[in-house]
Amino acid sequence: SCSQIEVSETQTIRVFRVVLPLYCVFLFVFSLQIPKTMTQGNCSSVTEFILLGFSDHPKLQIPLFVLFLLIYLITLVGNLGMILLIWVDSRLQTPMYFFLSNLSSLDICYSSSITPRLLLGLLTKKNVISFNECIVQFYFYAVFGTTEAFLLAMMAYDRYSAICNPLLYTTIMSQRACSQLVVGSYVAGIVNALVHTGTVLRLSFCSSNIINHFYCEIPPLLSLSCTDTWINEIVMFGFIGFTIITASLAILISYAYILATILSIHSYEGRCKVFSTCASHLTAVTLFYASAAFMYLRPNSKQHSQNLDKVASVFYTVVTPMLNPLIYSLRNKEINWTQTLEQTEAPSVE
C-alpha cells in the first residue's frame, strides 16, 4: 500500500542520515589512531615539489595549454549556465535539479582545484609547488571528489523515488531531505579528505622531490616517501574502495528497481520517456566511477602506469566536469536554454 511504501522510503532516508554521520565519525576516530612516522636517517625534509606534468613533451606545452584552457572555460560557462538556468526557470525547481545544481557547483570547484595550477605550469614552465600548497591542493581535490561520488549516489536515489514512487515523490524528497542528503555528502567528503591528508602529513619526504604528475595525488606522493607507506596504502584502498563500492551499490540497487519499473511499462514511448530521464545520470556515473576506479583500485604496474595515471586523471578531473552539463542538457528536454532566456527577457503581459 501507499502508506507502507511511504514508511519504507522514510526509513531509507533515515538510513542515509545515520550511515553518513557514522561513516564520518569512523573516519575521524581512525585518523586519530594512525601512528606518526619517523624521519629516517640524517636527511633534510623536502619543502617543495616539482610537478613534471607533461614536460616530457615540450613541443606540446602551448597546444596543451590552449586545449586545457578551452576545456576549463567551457567547464565554467557550462556549469555556471546550468546553475543560473535552474535558478531562473520555475519549472526546474524540483529535487532532481536541486541535486544537479549542486553537482554543477561541485564540478566548478573540482576542476578549479586542479586546472588553474596545470595551466600556470604549462604557460610559465615553472612547475615548482611548495609542500603546503601541495597539501592544500590535495585536500580540496579529495573533498570535492569524494563529495561528488556520494552526490551521484543521492541523485540515483532521487531518480528511483521519482520513477518508482511518483505519487510520493515530493513527500519523500522534501526540501529538508534533499538538503540533508547534500550536506551529508559534503560532510563525508570533508572528513574523508581530512583522513587522507592526515596520513600524508605523517610521511617524511627527504629524497627525491619530483612528482611525475600534473597535480599532487596520493600514488605519486607515496612513491616519493622515505618512510613506510603501508598505512597510507591501506587507507587509500580501504576508504576509497569503500566509497566507490558503497556508492556504486546504492546506484546499482536504485537502477535495478528503475529497470523493473521500465519493463513493466507496456508503451514503447513511455519506456523511452522514463529511460531518457536516467540516461544522462547513468552516463555521468559511468564516466566518473570508471576513471576513478581505474586510478585507485587497479593493481600497480611498473610499465606505463604513470602515463596511464595521467590520462585517467585528466579524464575525471578535467574532462568529466566539462561533459556533465553537456550530457544533462542534451539528454533532458526540460532544459531549454533558448526558451528560458526568452521567458526571462520577455515582459509580463496582464
UniProtKB/TrEMBL annotation:
It is a multi-pass membrane protein. CDD domains: 7tmA_OR5AK3-like (cd15408). GO terms for molecular function: G protein-coupled receptor activity; olfactory receptor activity. SUPFAM superfamilies: Family A G protein-coupled receptor-like. It is found in: Cell membrane; Membrane. The keyword Cell membrane applies. GO terms for cellular component: plasma membrane. Residues 78-328 form the G-protein coupled receptors family 1 profile domain. The chain crosses the membrane at residues 15-34, 62-85, 97-118, 138-157, 177-195, 234-262, 274-297. Keywords: Cell membrane, G-protein coupled receptor, Membrane, Olfaction, Receptor, Sensory transduction, Transducer, Transmembrane, Transmembrane helix. It comes from the Eukaryota. Belongs to the G-protein coupled receptor 1 family. Odorant receptor. This is Olfactory receptor. It comes from Pelusios castaneus.
